[in-house]
Amino acid sequence: MASLIKSLHPRLWFTGLWLSSDFRKLWGSLTITHFGGQITFLALPLTAALLLDASPFEVGVLTALEALPFPLFGLFAGVIVDRTPKLPVIIASDVGRGLALLAVPLCAWFGVLSMPVLYTVGFLVGTGTVLGWPAYQVFMTERVGRENLVEANAKIGVADSAAQLVGPGLAGILIQWLTAPFAILLDAFSFFFSAWMLRGIPPRESDAPKVKRSSVKEEILEGLRTIWHNRTLRALVWVLGTWQVFRHAFIAIVVLFCARELNFSAGHVGALFMLAGIGSLAAATLTARLNARFGMGPTMLTGITGTGVAWLVMGAAMGPYWLASAVFGLGMFLLDLTAMVFFINYLTLRQAVTPDRLLGRVTATMICLTVSTAPLGGIAGGWVADHYGLRSAMIAAGVGALLLGVLATWLSPLAKMHELPGPPQEPAVTESVAEEMAGD
Fold it and tell me: Which Pfam families match (predicted)?
């Protein structure tokens, strides 16, 4: 009996980063906001489509405005993250996004909800994410250490998988019960609760700004130089930046595709989106094994190509209700399985090859560059759906991702990268980005 009790001691199964209270709080706050985000992901376009009778193009504009802050403010966000302590930035962005989301149920309550309101909320939430997400990633890297990045990102992947596994089903139920605008209220509260959790993390020396104060322009250029000097980071920028076009075309029309093309209810859509969580959960457990067997780079490229297959599968959903549900659900499973395989490796690789003092700028600059194409994807997806149909837009996204996978295998160094690169070296100082581009 004594040995049985001893075997149940939490220390035996609560190992690794779970022993760090800082990581547990960071993981918990992100998990909560991921769950809340599942509600808004479904509720915001459903509010536009069902309550405001928006066209596919209008929903595409909404998707574009949510991503627009990345190219507008992303480079400045990197400077802010490197110049200031990270935790206050994360907390402020959580509070700001929560306040922005509160506007949707309040406007619905007073009968003044409109597409311009949704546009404004989407833009403000995107602005909070531009600041909060790179600050979170840098803060997490500083707290767990580079040697624990793979474990940290895998655990975060599990959190995201759990949110996608349970969150969409709950979101669908809440949307049907409360209506879409009032379900968003819970997402607002998730940001407030996340900020409350994070405020208890004690400061450390690593929180101090990593750069001396200089001109904002010079700091932005240094972040760009770092990326340009590193072949891996350059490849990740153009591969992921191109993929974001197809991803946001998909995001712009997927909920409308379910509601109008397949005639799924909000609850049914939420249930099918739960299959994406199963795919993410599988990826979180399989990525390390796939890397060991096939190599990190080939695994990443297979993942990004697989998203194209997933979109084609979803675009093929039709026929009887049960068959359309099965095909669409299979596509959702494949999408998050393959996308998560890519992103677990992408986040690990980006953090591993970046010098400590430049983590904030490189993280924010990479996000800015790779998401700067997203507004084009949202508008393109809405335009194609308006003119050629929702199914055509879905298929176009799939074909684009498949071609991208082939092109990336041919042109990028990722196909030959089998292991995580060694410790990063400080980049050489150069006069200008243009000079380096000309000399490539």
Answer: MFS_3
The identity of residue 61, as a single letter, is V
Q: Which two tokens stand for residue 87?
A: 């935790």
Is 352 within 8 Å of 298 (Cβ atoms)? no
How far apart are the two ends of the chain, measured CA to CA in Å?
Answer: 68
Q: Which residue reads 């009778």 in tokens?
A: 53
Q: Residues 6 or more apart from 191 whose CB is under 8 A from it?
A: 33, 36, 94, 95, 97, 98, 101
Q: At what angle do helices 231-256 and 374-388 cross, to 10 degrees?
A: 40
* CATH (one of 3.90.550.10, 3.90.660.20, 1.20.1250.20, 1.10.10.10) for 21-435: 1.20.1250.20
Taking the CA atoms of residue 166, residue 159, residue 132 and residue 239 in that order, the dihedral angle to the nearest 10 degrees is -100
Q: Mind listing the pLDDT tens digit for each residue in 22-75? A: 788 888 888 888 888 888 888 888 888 878 888 999 999 999 999 899 888 877
Distance CA 407, CA 411 (A): 6
281 within 8 A of 339, measured Cβ to Cβ: no
